[in-house]
Design a protein that fits this description.
Blueprint lengths: L8 H12 L2 H7 L1 H11 L4 H22 L5
Length: 72
């Protein structure tokens, strides 16, 4: 797998948001929703991108913990 190169730190942060939201996987099931999310992510600045990525990752971990019966 080749590593993606970005034109700026903001683009890289936006790429992390897209990965966290799993937009690539979503585009196979709901292409219109994926396009809408991708468009909105491109409007984020670097600080908001990093903040949103952290929130999504925490939510995903909480869901996994809950599904496995782990308490926080």
């Amino acid at each position: 797998m080749t590593e993606k190169t970005y034109g700026s730190p903001t683009e890289e942060a936006q790429g992390r948001v897209q990965a966290a939201l799993e937009i690539g996987d979503l585009s196979e099931i709901h292409p219109n929703a994926a396009l809408m999310l991708r468009t909105r992510v491109l409007n984020l600045d670097i600080e908001n991108s990093e903040y949103l990525t952290a929130i999504v990752e925490r939510a995903k971990q909480a869901a996994v913990d809950r599904a496995l019966g782990r308490s926080e």
